[in-house]
């Protein structure tokens, strides 16, 4: 007997000597590898035959379990490893990475057909493993064997401590083993023939693969754990019949993906934020989710801003304008502000009778309005009421949040929205995530990264810079609970041929109209400067309380915040309200002479009433009090605010101040100064009549031009947006008669559900007017079939700037520029929508008649008064005011808006979470596996070829998909798909996209491969010639080595950076040695024109 140690004496070398021509080889082993064939190719070609028994069940179809059953998979995995080792075992990576697998497989398959027969143990009883060589003169037996691979032959290193093999040549021993082998081989109850299946599987290695097959192979490997985790419980149940609903049939393909993804996230994590960009139909996606839960007999509540209530109510009532009437939607609609009301009615619902805790699903439109404010004394904030009364109370509540801007400058905004989903219990949520870190810790680290990034110069402060700096835990968190796609993403990565394209955006037209052409009226800048000089003392009574009396008011009205770490003073509240009211006046001046005039009149009356009250008190000495109303505006939406008035019964949280406790002389002096300033401005405004209103006259000329020179042939429609109902009324009064008389067209005004008016004879409600204005997109033929007339000019406020599809129109005018550029994009999103029938659309902006620098500087002077210093000095969570906007950044965006229409992702001053999620790929994979079954047996190392398309981001090169086999990379910083790595490298070895940008590469793979179900013959022809049918793969093997080297270089670079930065270092941890640390999953060759 000879002992082969597989160190100095290799089993493979010994077998080569033993295998003489016409020898018969018989092997019983657990696995067979084509690389063992390659190592012994010369000798095996000369043998007479090979009989191979798999000693454990392999390629036995009836043993394959349910593809999604996790329990059965645990028993399935060893069998799977045996089957997959055909194409190379886990220790033959070095051989696989030479990329000659295809050529070897083809040669091996030819050899098998001629000389080999495979059988498999089918009774699941252990068998001994050995090899016999039978020749005429001599017989040899080798044992024990583990498998028939390059490792067992001694040509590659495995993980066994020793790999000794005994060679026996004693005739009595060899005859016994040969007899045993033959007995088993000839017993059909013990073994089944699987030769055809082996050939079929090996053929898959050298077949020419379609791009789509490779795409799904890649997804299957990367997201296999997701497939294991999902069950019927967290995917939409088709038995509910939701796919038969009208709303589902109306959805575009990308909206259906969103709806299925939302349901999956709601079932998995109890919450989801849908943050698709403007114009992608978030409302319809949400309605499809609502229908799904209603079909499961769940109770649904929609919480929305008051201005959007009519839009949501249109779909849950039996109205002619409801295109989904047949779906019988049954959800309740309430406004955000209703959470703080305890009596009265809202939208037909009696508030004191609502069973807040009985909702199974809450859909929150504009969810970014919910920020976690501390309670004001004993009063709950809107956020706390939602958390305690709706979500924590009663039945388990799922939360779907809709917001185009869920992240502003503070990640706490996003954290607080997500907290609604996990009921404020971050530990419970953290356990569901794969990150292994606490949610609050992830957000803290993300905020620290953001704060550092925000201090960079504008040149360095790019979206790419912050995305590189954020931990991949943060992306995992976002990926788990958000769906956010941009219009660019939908255009590029979805098949939109059935939907139609987005229309072409023409360069915006900008008007810089003066207030008037009269020379005896103050200019815009002069009025601005006078407004900034206003003290607004009427809103700051607290400042005039006598020092000796101040203590009792502070004790009563100052509020502890951040758990008592700091205090929010009532005087701070007042200062902020003063600034808010100044801002309000500035905005109204920008909007129209009329809006400014009406507001000045109200403010003048308020001052006169206050001065009269003070005079009466001084004269009579009878105790009286003044109501400080600033606390009521802590949660106010700036856009909805008028001039704050103490007579407004809807204002809560008034602070009573006794006039006897105040320095009335000082206060009266300031009030009188303000009154005179306001009176003077009102006199100036009185000089400007409609014929003198330069902006109004410019608008009339613009309407005339549009009717004579339509943007699209025959399209006369125009939308005019303004921030204020007063301006809308003024425009309607002076434009509607002019348009009717001159062009014979009808005009409508919409400023809310109770602010509808038109030149038509009948009175119409909000939705009917919108349907008459946009008859195709609103399906007027179905819901108002008897209407013969339509509306061509629509004047509206921001109550129609969201959630409406008005794409019949091709011309949108912003009569006033909103201070927040996001609102301008949202307005334009009404007509800038996918599937528009208009080839071109036009945006027109009316700007104040001053330079942009002056405009920004004036705003900054006012806004700086709005920011309350945070006494904890963290720079975070100012309680009352919105965060101060980055003025330089906003100036840049407003400048761009004069020259182009920009996307929502481009105007956000913070981090855009758009296009970071991997939901599309998971849903692709789920749909594929449900239709086609498991891809477990698909070999690794396969490739496909596609045509290069540099315009779409696909220059010639190779995309490699690899698996790190020893977890060598610093996973917490580098790659969110660890242990899977994707690298896109060009033909010269230069990295096009590195392994940290996995989402970008997956997007390109989807773009290049999905839907291409057949290989491209002409590409394979040139490729096969170039590589000698896969035998000469040195070029691609070298590119693979360079791709892996690029990852090592990037890791080393980051390691060095981490040595010189705060926090821990990744240096000297888990180094990668190179090629052998990675297994090739698949690669995509992107061929250039020369192919």
Give a structural overview.
With 1091 residues, this protein is of the alpha/beta class. Helix 24 packs antiparallel against helix 25 (593-620), helix 27 crosses helix 28 and helix 32 runs antiparallel to helix 33 (887-899). The longest helix has 28 residues, at 593-620. The two termini are 57 Å apart. Mean pLDDT is 79; it is low at 62-79, 630-653, 865-886, 968-972 and 1055-1073.
Keywords:
eight-stranded mixed beta sheet, alpha/beta, 1091 residues
State the distance separating the first and last CA atoms. 57 Å
How much helix is in the residues? 40-55%
Report strand %: 5-15%
Count of DSSP strands: 33
Q: Pick out the low-confidence regions.
A: 62-79, 630-653, 865-886, 968-972, 1055-1073
Could you say which structural class the secondary elements and strand pairing correspond to?
A: alpha/beta
Topology record:
Elements: E1 2-4, H1 11-18, E2 24-29, H2 34-39, H3 41-46, E3 49-54, H4 70-84, H5 93-96, H6 101-115, E4 116-121, E5 130-134, E6 139-143, E7 165-168, H7 171-185, E8 191-193, H8 195-206, H9 211-222, H10 224-229, H11 246-250, H12 253-269, E9 271-274, H13 282-295, E10 300-304, H14 309-313, E11 332-335, E12 345-346, E13 349-350, E14 361-365, H15 382-392, E15 398-402, H16 411-421, H17 426-432, H18 439-454, H19 463-469, H20 472-481, E16 482-483, H21 487-493, E17 504-505, E18 509-513, H22 524-533, H23 550-557, E19 559-561, E20 566-568, H24 570-591, H25 593-620, E21 625-628, E22 655-658, H26 664-686, H27 694-708, E23 718-721, H28 725-743, E24 747-750, E25 756-758, H29 766-773, H30 780-783, E26 793-796, E27 811-814, H31 821-828, E28 840-848, H32 852-863, H33 887-899, H34 904-907, H35 919-932, E29 942-947, E30 957-964, E31 980-986, E32 991-993, H36 998-1009, H37 1017-1026, H38 1034-1059, E33 1078-1087
Parallel strand pairs: 2-3, 3-4, 9-15, 9-16, 10-11, 10-14, 14-15, 17-28, 18-28, 23-26, 23-27, 24-26, 27-28, 29-33
Antiparallel strand pairs: 1-7, 2-5, 4-8, 5-6, 6-7, 12-13, 19-20, 21-22, 24-25, 30-31, 30-33, 31-32
Helix pairs in contact: 6-8, 9-36, 12-13, 22-24, 22-32, 24-25, 25-26, 25-28, 27-28, 32-33
């Amino acid at each position: 007997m000879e002992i082969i140690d597989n160190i100095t004496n290799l089993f493979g070398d010994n077998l080569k000597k033993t295998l003489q021509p016409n020898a018969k080889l018989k092997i019983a082993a657990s696995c067979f590898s084509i690389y063992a064939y390659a190592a012994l190719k010369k000798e095996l070609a000369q043998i007479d035959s090979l009989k191979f028994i798999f000693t454990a069940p392999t390629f036995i179809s009836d043993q394959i379990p349910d593809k999604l059953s996790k329990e059965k998979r645990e028993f399935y995995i060893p069998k799977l490893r045996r089957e997959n080792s055909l194409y190379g075992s886990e220790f033959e990576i070095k051989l696989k990475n030479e990329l000659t697998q295809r050529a070897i497989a083809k040669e091996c398959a030819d050899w098998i057909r001629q000389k080999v027969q495979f059988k498999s143990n089918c009774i699941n009883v252990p068998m001994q493993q050995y090899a016999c060589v039978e020749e005429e003169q001599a017989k040899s037996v080798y044992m024990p064997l583990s498998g028939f691979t390059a490792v067992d032959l001694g040509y590659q290193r495995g993980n066994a401590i020793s790999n000794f093999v005994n060679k026996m040549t004693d005739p009595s021993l060899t005859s016994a083993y040969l007899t045993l082998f033959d007995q088993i081989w000839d017993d059909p109850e013990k073994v089944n023939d699987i030769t055809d299946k082996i050939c079929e599987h090996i053929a898959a290695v050298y077949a020419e693969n379609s791009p789509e097959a490779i795409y799904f192979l890649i997804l299957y490997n990367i997201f296999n754990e997701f497939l294991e985790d999902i069950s019927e419980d967290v995917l939409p149940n088709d038995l509910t019949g939701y796919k038969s609903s009208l709303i589902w049939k109306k959805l575009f393909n990308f909206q259906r993906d969103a709806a299925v993804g939302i349901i999956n996230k709601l079932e998995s994590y109890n919450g989801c934020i849908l943050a698709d960009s403007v114009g992608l139909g978030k409302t319809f996606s949400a309605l499809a989710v609502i229908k799904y839960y209603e079909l499961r007999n769940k109770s649904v509540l929609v919480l929305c801003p008051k201005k959007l209530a009519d839009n949501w109510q249109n779909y849950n009532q039996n109205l002619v304008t409801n295109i989904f009437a047949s779906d019988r939607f049954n959800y309740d609609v309430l406004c955000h502000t209703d959470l703080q009301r305890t009596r009265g009615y809202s939208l037909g619902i009696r508030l004191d009778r609502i069973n807040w805790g009985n909702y199974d699903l809450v859909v929150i439109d504009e969810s970014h309005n919910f920020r976690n404010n501390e309670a004001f004394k004993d009063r709950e904030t809107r956020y706390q009421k939602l958390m305690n009364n709706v979500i924590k109370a009663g039945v388990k509540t799922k939360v779907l949040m809709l917001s185009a801007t869920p992240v502003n400058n503070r990640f706490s905004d996003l954290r607080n929205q997500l907290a609604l989903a996990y009921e404020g219990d971050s530990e419970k949520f953290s356990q569901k995530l794969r990150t292994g870190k606490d949610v609050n810790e992830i957000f803290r680290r993300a905020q620290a990264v953001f704060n550092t990034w925000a201090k960079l110069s504008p040149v360095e402060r790019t979206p790419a810079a912050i995305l590189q700096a954020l931990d991949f835990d943060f992306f995992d968190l976002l990926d788990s609970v958000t769906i956010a796609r941009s219009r660019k993403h939908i255009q590029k990565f979805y098949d939109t041929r059935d939907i139609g394209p987005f229309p072409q955006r023409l360069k915006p037209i900008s008007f810089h109209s003066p207030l008037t052409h009269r020379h005896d009226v103050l200019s815009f800048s002069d009025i601005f400067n006078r407004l900034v000089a206003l003290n607004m003392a009427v809103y700051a009574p607290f400042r005039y309380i006598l020092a000796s009396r101040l203590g009792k008011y502070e004790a009563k009205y100052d509020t502890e915040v951040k758990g008592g770490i700091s205090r929010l003073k009532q005087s701070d509240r007042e200062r902020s309200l003063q600034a808010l009211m100044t801002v309000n006046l500035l905005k109204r001046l920008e909007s129209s002479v009329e809006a400014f005039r009406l507001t000045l009149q109200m403010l003048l009356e308020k001052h006169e009433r206050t001065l009269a009250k003070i005079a009466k008190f001084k004269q009579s000495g009878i105790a009286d009090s003044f109501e400080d109303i600033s606390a009521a505006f802590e949660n106010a939406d700036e856009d909805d605010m008028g001039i704050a008035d103490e007579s407004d019964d809807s204002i809560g949280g008034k602070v009573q101040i006794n006039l006897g406790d105040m320095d009335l002389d000082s206060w009266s002096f300031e009030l009188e100064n303000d009154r005179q300033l306001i009176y003077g401005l009102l006199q100036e405004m009185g000089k400007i009549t409609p014929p003198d209103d330069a902006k109004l006259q410019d608008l009339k000329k613009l309407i005339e031009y549009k009717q004579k020179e339509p943007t699209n042939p025959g399209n006369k429609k125009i939308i005019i947006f303004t921030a204020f109902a007063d301006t809308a009324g003024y425009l309607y009064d002076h434009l509607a008669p002019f348009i009717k008389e001159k062009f014979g067209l009808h005009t409508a005004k919409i400023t809310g559900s109770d602010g509808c008016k038109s030149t038509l004879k009948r009175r119409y409600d909000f939705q009917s007017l919108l349907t008459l204005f946009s008859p195709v997109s609103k399906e007027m033929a179905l819901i108002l079939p008897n209407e013969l007339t339509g509306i061509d000019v629509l004047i509206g406020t921001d109550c129609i700037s969201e959630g409406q599809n008005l794409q019949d129109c091709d011309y949108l005018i912003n009569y006033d520029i909103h201070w927040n550029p996001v609102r301008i994009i949202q307005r334009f999103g009404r007509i800038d929508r996918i599937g528009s029938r208009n080839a071109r659309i036009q945006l027109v902006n009316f700007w104040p008649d001053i330079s942009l620098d002056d405009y920004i500087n004036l705003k900054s002077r006012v806004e700086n008064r709005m920011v309350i210093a945070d006494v904890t000095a963290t720079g975070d969570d100012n309680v009352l005011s919105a965060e101060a906007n980055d003025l330089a950044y906003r100036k840049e965006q407003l400048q761009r808006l004069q020259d182009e229409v920009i996307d929502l992702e481009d105007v956000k001053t913070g981090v855009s979470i758009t296009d970071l999620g991997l939901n599309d790929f998971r849903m692709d994979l789920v749909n594929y596996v449900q239709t086609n079954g498991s891809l477990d047996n698909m070999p690794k190392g396969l490739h496909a070829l596609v045509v290069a398309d540099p315009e779409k981001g696909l220059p010639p090169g190779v995309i490699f998909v690899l698996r790190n086999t020893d977890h060598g990379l610093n996973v917490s910083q580098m790659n969110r798909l660890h242990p899977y790595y994707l690298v896109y490298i060009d033909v010269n070895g230069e990295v096009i996209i590195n392994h940290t940008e996995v989402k970008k590469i997956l997007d390109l793979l989807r773009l290049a491969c999905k839907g291409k179900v057949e290989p491209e013959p002409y590409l394979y022809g040139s490729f096969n010639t170039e590589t000698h049918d896969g035998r000469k793969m040195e070029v691609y093997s070298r590119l693979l080595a360079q791709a892996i080297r690029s990852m090592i270089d990037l890791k080393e670079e980051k390691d060095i950076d981490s040595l010189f930065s705060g926090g821990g270092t990744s240096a000297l941890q888990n180094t990668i040695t190179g090629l052998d640390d990675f297994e090739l999953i698949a690669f995509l060759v992107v061929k250039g024109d020369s192919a």
